[in-house]
Write a structure and sequence with these properties.
The complex is a heterodimer of chains A (287) and B (261).
Chain A lengths: L10 E2 L2 E2 L2 E4 L2 H10 L6 E4 L9 H12 L2 E4 L13 H14 L3 E5 L2 E4 L2 E7 L5 H18 L4 E3 L14 H12 L2 E5 H11 L3 H6 L6 E6 L3 E5 L2 E5 L8 H14 L4 E3 L8 H17 L2
Parallel strand pairs in A: 3-4, 3-14, 4-5, 5-6, 6-9, 9-10, 10-11, 11-14
Antiparallel strand pairs in A: 1-2, 7-8, 12-13
Helix pairs in contact in A: 1-2, 4-5
Chain B lengths: L1 H16 L16 H23 L1 H7 L1 H14 L14 H9 L6 H17 L16 H5 L1 E5 L4 E5 L3 H7 L17 E8 L2 E7 L1 H11 L4 H11 L5 H11 L2 E6 L5
Antiparallel strand pairs in B: 1-5, 2-3, 3-4
Helix pairs in contact in B: 2-4, 3-4, 3-6, 5-6, 6-8, 9-10
The chains are: A alpha/beta (287), B mainly alpha (261).
Chain lengths: 287, 261
């Protein structure tokens, strides 16, 4: 497989091929006041569904100086329910207002019959499920008027009788829906450990032209008697093994906008900047 | 799509109702059993909902303690399932859930604290609008004044309580020094919540003032609203209510009713 580094991507949408940081409310004032040297931010779409007020004002102020990507967690693209119109309309409104460089959602489901678990639940990897989620992503892109990225999620179980591997499922969905991929390298690592597959082979089988963004985050190890399972907690530093897999991903697929995610027990902005600098050094080395 | 619907319904039933019989055979076991794997998802969901409630209702959590709050959150999860992919709306029925549990008990006041905290959330997220000030009404003639209707700013809420709800809230915020013993039966408080610049502010309202502002919200003309409120408190001072309203920025526009002047 040919690495795409020689294509020389400068940016994806308005998002530069550099390391960015997940935008969290606790850091907003500091960012607005001090304008730290960060290349771009990713905001959780639903955190800005308010009609008005301080939260939107802060995003507006940050948007003046930084490129922003929107990352949704609640659209439930893989649900057998029809897409939630109100959720889509609210997302579209944010896109019109903030002109994000990238818009992403998760390849998962979180609701059925109108009831939400507000969690990123795994899809069965069947042809039926593939066809359905492809159709939903198509509808979503039609309403939003642009391509989206779908993210591979961490999972703690797999359904029996899978008709394809996880990396095949992700690639087939992106191909069928003609959307891009947000490749979460930590999620690949977590799933590889949880479900016993080779994470490097997973990366090898990603369609490089569709991978438009990379996520990095920390995880925890839970123990069940003498067994362990990795949980995607977004509350710690990226571990060495994931940095290794990230480096491999950049080598194979080429440099891509890369985001440091940290959602609970949120540390100082400085620590996030340090993590982003680590990602940046890997991106620069492969430019 | 029958299999997908069925699988998602069975999964949800396992998480919500603990009914795992149908979904377990569809989950690959391996080193860790299917039931344990499902439990991870159950915990993730519960924890997500609990944290969302705790962030919207910090004072209720402080009043009841973390252990009890966990139970309330679980109870709420079952009585008012989430209907949205936006967790920001999740707590909208929490006060109602507390009312059902604590009505006619000595913890009844918790319902009003929750109403106040949810009103705070709503005010924080409501739409922006220009506020009205006194000089905006300079051109209103005395004849028009009789038919004047003031429009309440979207980011305004009222919470009326039989309990000193603002006092309880102030004494139990995270930044409160300690939690002094309070007599929850020391008299009711009516609270106005509004936004000044970006922050939410809370003011105590007289009962008549509350009545008048609520009548304005319901679309009554200022004259009608004042008349209704003055019937409760003949000493109600219209100028004072308006001056406070302009200071707090609780009006965002005006119009004239069609009724007789």
């Amino acid at each position: 497989m040919t690495p795409l580094t020689d294509i020389g991507w400068q940016s994806v949408g308005s998002i530069p091929v550099h390391a960015g940081i997940g935008l969290r409310s606790v850091h907003q004032d500091e960012i607005i006041e001090q304008r730290p040297c960060i290349e771009w931010f990713e905001a959780h779409t639903e955190n800005y569904f308010a009609a008005g007020g301080a939260q939107l004002e802060a995003l507006h102020a940050i948007r003046q100086d930084y490129p922003i990507a929107l990352h949704g967690v609640g659209l439930s693209l893989g649900s057998a329910d029809p897409l939630n119109d109100a959720h889509l309309r609210a997302t579209k409104k944010l896109i019109d207002r903030f002109e994000p460089g990238l818009i992403s959602e998760h390849l998962c489901w979180s609701s059925i019959d109108g009831q939400y678990l507000n969690d990123l639940l795994p899809l069965p990897r069947s042809v039926e499920s593939l066809r359905h989620v492809v159709e939903q992503i198509g509808q979503c892109q039609d309403v939003l008027g642009q391509r989206i990225l779908i993210e591979n999620v961490s999972s703690y179980l797999e359904f029996a009788d899978a008709e394809m591997s996880e990396c095949e499922f992700v690639a087939n969905v992106a191909d069928g829906a003609d959307c891009d991929i947000l490749l979460d390298v930590n999620n690949i690592y977590v799933n590889a450990r949880n479900h016993q597959f080779d994470p490097f082979e997973y990366v090898d089988r990603m369609p490089a032209m569709r991978v438009a963004e990379i996520h990095l985050a920390g995880h925890r190890i839970n123990h069940f008697e003498d067994q362990e399972i990795l949980i995607d907690t977004h509350d710690a530093k990226v571990v060495d093994e994931v940095w290794g897999l990230y480096k491999y991903t950049v080598e194979r697929l080429g440099p891509r906008p890369t985001l440091i995610e940290w959602d609970t027990n949120i540390p100082s902005l400085d620590l996030l900047i340090e993590e982003a600098a680590k990602a940046e050094s890997i991106l620069v080395a492969h430019r | 799509m029958n299999e997908l619907i069925e699988l998602q319904r069975q999964f949800l039933r396992a998480i919500v109702a603990g009914d795992e019989a149908a979904i377990l055979p569809k989950i690959q076991g391996g080193r860790i059993g299917a039931a344990e794997r499902l439990r991870i998802y159950r915990n993730n969901s519960y924890e997500g909902f609990r944290l969302s409630l705790a962030s919207a209702f910090p004072v209720v959590e402080r009043l009841v303690g973390q252990g009890c709050f966990r139970g309330l959150a679980l109870d709420y999860f079952h009585s008012f399932p989430s209907q949205s992919g936006d967790l920001g709306t999740y707590g909208q029925h929490f006060a109602e859930s507390l009312r059902r549990r604590y009505e006619r008990s000595s913890f009844d006041y918790l319902t009003d604290v929750a109403r106040l905290e949810w009103a705070y959330q709503e005010v924080m997220m409501e739409a922006d609008a220009e506020t009205l000030c006194a000089r905006d009404l300079a051109s209103v003639t005395p004849e028009q004044f009789e038919r004047l209707r003031l429009h309440l700013h979207p980011a305004v809420r009222f919470v009326a309580s039989r309990y000193p709800v603002l006092g309880i809230w102030l004494a139990n915020r995270d930044d409160a020094q300690d939690c002094p013993a309070m007599n929850v039966h020391s008299g009711g408080e009516s609270v106005l919540l509004h936004r000044t610049f970006s922050s939410v502010e809370l003011q105590i309202l007289d009962p008549a003032e509350l009545l008048m502002l609520q009548a304005c919200t319901a679309g009554r003309s200022l004259a009608e609203a004042f008349e209704q409120a003055a019937a409760v408190d003949p000493n109600l001072d219209l100028q004072r209510v308006l001056a406070r309203g302009f200071t707090f920025g609780i009006f965002c526009g005006y119009s004239f009713s069609n009724g007789p002047g």
